[in-house]
Amino acid sequence: MAEADRDILLSKANGSTPSFDKLRTSPERSRGTLTMGTERPFDSFHSLRVVPSAVEGRSRSAKRYSALKYTLAILDTIYLLMLLLVFAGSGISKNLAQALLNFARNQYIILPLYLLIVSVIYYLLSLPLNLYSSYILEHKFCLSQQKIVDWFKDQIKAGIIYYVITVILIAAFYYILKHYIYTWWWVISLVWIFFSLILARLTPVVIIPLFFKYKKLSDDTLRERIMNLANRMKVNPAPARRGGVKILDVFEIDLSKKTLKANAAFVGIGKTKRVILADTLKDKYSYDEIEVILAHEFAHYKLKHLFKLILVNSLATIVAFYFIFKTSNYVLRLFSLSSLLDIAALPIIFLYLLIFGIVTQPFSNYISRNLERNADTLALKSTGLKEAFISMMEKLSNQNLSDRNPHPIIKFFFFDHPPTDERIATAKYLII
Known about the structure:
There is one protein chain. By secondary structure, the chain is mostly helical. It has one domain. 67% of the residues lie in helices and 4% in strands. It has helices at residues 3-13, 45-48, 52-89, 92-103, 107-140, 148-179, 184-207, 220-232, 279-282, 287-302, 305-334, 346-383, 386-400, 408-414, 420-429, and strands at 214-216, 249-253, 264-267, 274-278. Strands 1-2-4-3 form a 4-stranded mixed β-sheet. β3 (264-267) and β4 form a beta hairpin. The radius of gyration is 23 Å and the shape is globular. The two termini are 40 Å apart. 38% of the residues are buried.
């Protein structure tokens, strides 16, 4: 699965409101945080230890890799904006809508066909950029060993999933737009928010298994430590006999088949809540390192960050649709369109959502960085594993080729986590 695909799926698993700006992936979106300890039955640190000259070389590679990712993300966004403008402004969208209307009078057939044709055209036009950014570049910097055939299979699966989700959401949009003429903007916002919660619940058990093999964590000692940590941080629900939900469990996935980067996550809602460890993390990091990263993930739950992010994303969704409601008549006239109900106007909706996502991304990143800092602080105070946290961040940065100290403008636009050097500095001076 492409890196953008993994990010979008994890955002669904964590309850983000569906929005097309998620397709513009930040180069630094990564949930993993790892540490260094000595309780492993083997010393994994030796496998990652390098001499200073190698560290400098890895640092230069990280800068080159990050610069390319930033450039590609910007080009991808500009390219999509241009395609949408050309598609809507040149009359292509109108002609396609009219041709489909002549072919089938039923709007419930026209919409899926329109979206299918547009999706295939967009995928083919963006394939060179997509292939380079998510496959060639990852192999060039030795961050992936995935075969091209498997990459295409993941692309097809992800494309089908996004197509189905898009059809559902856009069909709901047109139905509500038709039946709630003056209040559609808040009704559709509520529907999209509700749908995002359903996705958050289903993603760990339905979508993620389509791309990765799930299995319960085989390391009993590590599993026991994780469960004890969850109990200490009061993340585990009460036993079912006392009216609680089913106790959470710990799973590992074969992330190494797609990327050599490390990652971990605490995903799901209610009975689908679970800890996911990538094999690239489990096999190369110590127990202490894994414990502190999962303490970070549990801290998000403990501090109700998921709920806060859902509120922020929900507010953004409502504002976006209200803005469309108030301004769409003027914009439609620029493209010689009469109504949002016209399927030919669909690229205009996508333009709105894309531009709104670009404008709000820095503010969303700012909120996210603050939440991440709070999670780091609680994780460190809950575990006391300061040295493990610092060594984990060093190793993770090296393994994932992270930009440790980006320019403030890059940080403002691209980083939803504090940069590595900031997180290490915070840990060093934190009084536990």
